[in-house]
């Protein structure tokens, strides 16, 4: 079962995925990390030249780097799905679609073609949060903020998530991510159990 945990930055995706993967023995989280070395090197080179990757790479190019990350984890996802694991993933199709259009809303056909070739999530959990609350959390985290975490971008991404998720042909459960971590976690479990029961019923029929 492939579950896409999504939401704007600071909505609590990493926190929730970590808890769910500890709770479910038969789960695994798929991390996108194959280009990390490349991105770090680009950052270093840019820094030496008083620049940064957001100046040097346009939005579409950065999105292709992340699309490539997704392509690279597909064999891993398929392998886990064959083993009947619960696969938890963040930064998947919808996320890539949104960030590819955040600063430049012209569509990039290639991104859509890539997305069509990827394993479809069985369902998504959307962590809904006011961008202001997300901003506070990001600030409290104490890490350097990426340009895409500006309040304006969070607001835009929040609207885009709602629009994109309204178009998908798989179930989407919207959770109130401003609630306490424990509550969000329990509601996510409830949803996973519901979807597991439905999937089980389907298997029984066929
Ligand atoms: N329900 C919650 N209530 C309060 N704080 C939370 C909650 N969930 C997560 N946090 C805190 O908010 C911060 C952001 O959470 P987290 O890193 O999980 O979000 P994220 O969606 O993965 O962000 P990003 O996309 O930027 O990586 C962390 O400091 C985390 O401890
Ligand atoms: C463009 C884009 C970004 N992301 C996510 C992945 C990383 O956490 C950050 C960093 O992005 P940056 O543009 O390189 O600063 O954003 C993503 O998931 N999908 C994308 O298309």
UniProtKB/TrEMBL annotation:
<dbReference type="InterPro" id="IPR039430">
    <property type="entry name" value="Thymidylate_kin-like_dom"/>
</dbReference>
<feature type="domain" description="Thymidylate kinase-like">
    <location>
        <begin position="7"/>
        <end position="184"/>
    </location>
</feature>
<keyword id="KW-0545">Nucleotide biosynthesis</keyword>
<protein>
    <recommendedName>
        <fullName>Thymidylate kinase</fullName>
        <ecNumber>2.7.4.9</ecNumber>
    </recommendedName>
</protein>
<dbReference type="InterPro" id="IPR018094">
    <property type="entry name" value="Thymidylate_kinase"/>
</dbReference>
<comment type="similarity">
    <text>Belongs to the thymidylate kinase family.</text>
</comment>
<dbReference type="InterPro" id="IPR027417">
    <property type="entry name" value="P-loop_NTPase"/>
</dbReference>
<dbReference type="Pfam" id="PF02223">
    <property type="entry name" value="Thymidylate_kin"/>
</dbReference>
<keyword id="KW-0547">Nucleotide-binding</keyword>
<dbReference type="GO" id="GO:0004798">
    <property type="term" value="F:dTMP kinase activity"/>
</dbReference>
<keyword id="KW-0808">Transferase</keyword>
<keyword id="KW-0418">Kinase</keyword>
<keyword id="KW-0067">ATP-binding</keyword>
């Amino acid at each position: 079962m492939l579950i896409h945990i999504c939401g704007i930055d600071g909505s609590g995706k990493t926190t929730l995925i970590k808890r769910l993967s500890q709770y479910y023995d038969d789960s695994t989280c798929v991390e996108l990390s194959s280009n990390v070395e490349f991105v770090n090197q680009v950052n270093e080179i840019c820094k030496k030249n008083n620049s940064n990757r957001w100046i040097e790479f346009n939005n579409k190019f950065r999105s292709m780097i992340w699309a490539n990350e997704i392509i690279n984890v597909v064999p891993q996802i398929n392998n886990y799905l064959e083993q009947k694991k619960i696969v938890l993933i963040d930064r998947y199709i919808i996320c890539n679609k949104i960030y590819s259009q955040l600063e430049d809303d012209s569509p990039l056909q290639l991104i859509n073609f890539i997305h069509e070739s990827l394993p479809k999530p069985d369902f998504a959990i959307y962590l809904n949060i006011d961008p202001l609350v997300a901003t506070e959390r990001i600030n409290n985290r104490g890490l350097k903020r990426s340009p895409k975490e500006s309040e304006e971008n969070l607001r835009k991404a929040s609207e885009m998530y709602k629009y994109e998720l309204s178009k998908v042909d798989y179930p989407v459960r919207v959770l109130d991510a401003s609630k306490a971590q424990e509550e969000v976690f329990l509601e996510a479990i409830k949803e996973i159990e519901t979807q597991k029961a439905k999937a089980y019923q389907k298997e029984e029929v066929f």
